[in-house]
Write a structure and sequence with these properties.
2 domains; Rossmann fold; 22% strand; 392 residues; alpha+beta
Length: 392
């Protein structure tokens, strides 16, 4: 077994104990994709999988590791000859192994719970199987300040942000680039409020990254965006970041038009194409939320893959976004349309309270958050600049 740096050992223990919550006697499935070892999108290394396996076994659980091939297919899911109603499928051996597990630890981007196939949550929710999405999938990511920041600390920043999203309150996003988008917070479908930890539901990511997606109605305004989330940027065929900003015009809860350069034209054609399958819901601004992690910005030597660095930055505590499109009610549509219109460095206010102000999430100052930070003085926390290898 390769030697493990102390930083990575701490991160692995945090992930297994506090995110996946592995207990003695559990059947734990660890999944990774072969392409990720050789330049594919499912970035991973053998050290990470080995360390996770060892940690699971040390806790008295039974560990099974599957290295799988993800079906080869076009990255772009629309356009001439494409039919997004016929998606690729989870490999049957993987799907059946997931159904037999108590906990799944996934290291594969393509097997994400929220952003790719509807089949993934369908499998997990059949038996309420815990799904821990490990995003720190390489030794250098585990050893980074992003991986080493205490899961408990970031979870508390998250829960306090959730608590500010009161159903019926008005939310307002503004940004120095001229963006102004606002709407009304809608109550969650299956509970009365959003102030819940990850012990409800099957999904938990590591490192913790965003507060709950807040349902919204009657969104209005203009969002000026420089990028969207990397998974759907790949599916649409736009670069991340854009070559030219895109103006998103929103009225009565729906996108009315995109303006800008080449990316705006591509988005316009993509949304028209997908509307043949999803109808008006294609244009729905269904919700919003943002990042909660103080150290979710990495250097190229820590993560050479530029799109994956953008994916990590999506979780930074200066980043928030609104969701463009809603496929959730179309149960026969196999993809989960998860297109996040990214804004970084602006303000977000819900009711009388700022959630983001001056490029930082305000709930990092909550007394409960500060009390937890005191427990972890020897790990990165609320003063991320003190832990930088390369000062910015």
């Amino acid at each position: 077994m390769p030697l493990i740096p102390k930083q990575a050992a701490i991160a692995v223990a945090d992930m297994v104990d506090n995110c996946a919550k592995v207990k003695p006697g559990m059947n734990v499935l660890i999944i990774a994709a072969n392409d990720g070892l050789h330049g594919g999108v499912n970035i991973v290394d053998q050290e990470t999988v080995t360390w996770l396996h060892a940690a699971v076994v040390q806790r008295g659980a039974d560990a099974t590791v599957i290295w799988c091939d993800i079906p080869a297919r076009p990255a772009i899911i629309w356009g001439q000859g494409a039919d997004p109603s016929k998606a690729w499928r989870v490999p049957p051996v993987v799907a059946n192994a997931m159904r037999a597990a108590d906990v799944v630890i996934s290291n594969a981007v393509d097997l994400t719970y929220e952003e790719e196939l509807r089949e993934i949550p369908d499998i997990l929710e059949e038996r309420k199987i815990k799904y821990a999405r490990n995003m720190a999938t390489t030794a250098s990511l585990l050893s980074s300040n992003w991986g080493l920041t205490p899961y408990e600390l970031v979870s508390e920043i998250r829960i306090q942000a959730n608590a500010l999203a009161k159903p019926g309150a008005r939310w307002v996003m503004t940004h120095p680039n001229g963006s102004h988008v606002e709407g009304i917070v809608v109550k969650p479908e299956d509970m009365d409020d959003y102030a819940h930890y990850r012990d409800i539901g099957v999904y938990c990511p590591f490192p913790e990254g965003v507060w709950s997606s807040i349902r919204a109605r009657d969104a209005e305004g203009v969002g000026i965006i420089n990028e969207i989330g990397v998974i759907w940027a790949r599916h649409i065929g736009v670069p991340c970041p854009f070559k030219q900003p895109v103006r998103v015009y929103i009225e009565r809860g729906y996108i009315k038009k995109f303006e800008g350069g080449e990316e705006a034209e591509t988005l316009t054609r993509f949304y028209k194409f997908i509307s043949e399958y999803l109808g008006e819901a294609t244009y729905e601004v269904r919700g919003f939320h943002g990042g909660v992690h103080p150290s979710a910005i990495l250097e190229p030597h820590q993560c050479p893959n530029a799109p994956y660095r953008h994916f990590i930055e999506h979780h930074h505590w200066s980043s928030f976004h609104f969701h463009m499109g809603n496929s959730r009610r179309a149960k026969d549509f196999p993809y989960l349309m998860h297109i996040s219109a990214e804004l970084r460095g602006g303000d977000l206010k819900i009711g009388d309270h700022y959630v983001y102000k001056n490029s930082r999430i305000t709930t990092a100052d909550h007394p409960k958050v500060k009390a937890i930070a005191e427990k972890y003085k020897n790990r990165p926390g609320l003063e991320p600049e003190r832990w930088l290898q390369t000062p910015r």
